[in-house]
Amino acid sequence: MANGASQKRSYSTSARRLQQLQEVLPEHTSSAVPPAMISSMEYPDAGPGHKFAIPPIDSVTMLDHLKRRYDPVVEQVTKSLMRHGKLAQAQKRTLLLSDGGPPMAPVPTSSSSPAISDINTITHLPRSTLPLHPIAYLTTIIDSVAPLLKIRQMRGVAGGGQSLPVPTPMGIRQRRRQAIQWILGAADGRRETKLSDRVAREFLSVAEGKSGVWERRAMVHRLAVSARSNIKTVAMRKSRR
Fold first, then answer.
1. Is the pLDDT of residue 39 over 60?
2. For residue 15, which of 27, 44, 69, 237 sits 20 to 30 Å off, Cα-Cα?
3. Total structural domains in the chain?
4. Which residues form the Small ribosomal subunit protein uS7 domain (predicted)?
């Protein structure tokens, strides 16, 4: 080569075969674990091969799962507050909603307002102690204002291309989602600067019976009662097919 450079490599490129290595080092393979090491890993309280005792399965609840460690209502509110896929920001807003929001007042007992009463309160806690339990307070508000039914416009049932309103029952998650959407929609019209403050004030307004969400719930139920005869019409039409 030019400049008198040597053509020999300065390092070795030879490789040994796997069979030769196994013949030379048969006792030091990765699969061979000394028995003394296995015996040292055994703990009398946990069983062989375990360092800690296995927890009893009977005491494991749904919230102990990593992906279900939050309350279902709190998680549903968080997902409703999420914008553009920013889950961490929505979780921060939910935390401010429960901890940094306005103080939770006891539910009023006035029978003139459509506030949460002992009849429609869905909780095992006394009404006076609900402010001490934020998650139970939030769940009670949402479940109390959630509609039981929704109105589906079914086209072609009545004939002539007209749509027929048919009351349809909803599941618990659907009911809660509708109530959360109503509350968030009503919170957009409030004057508070922060979103967490607007939502917290609207939740308190629902608990006090001053929110317009109660009227929306009553309107849906009135429409369902007036259209209850359409359920039989739809059932008879399906039976003819």
1. no
2. 27
3. 1
4. 131-228
| Domain assignment of residue 196, given as a range | 65-104+114-151+172-213
Short-list 109, 107, 77, 103, CA closest to 187: 77
Question: How much is the pLDDT for 78?
Answer: 94
Q: Is residue 43 part of a domain?
A: no
Q: How much is the CA Rg of the chain, to the nearest whole Å?
A: 32
CATH number at residue 189: 1.10.455.10
The confidence band for 119, taking pLDDT boundaries of 50, 70 and 90, is very low
In the predicted structure, residue 49 carries a pLDDT above the cut 50: yes
Structure tokens at 237: 């039409």
In a domain, 241, yes or no: no
- Indicate whether 20 belongs to any domain: no
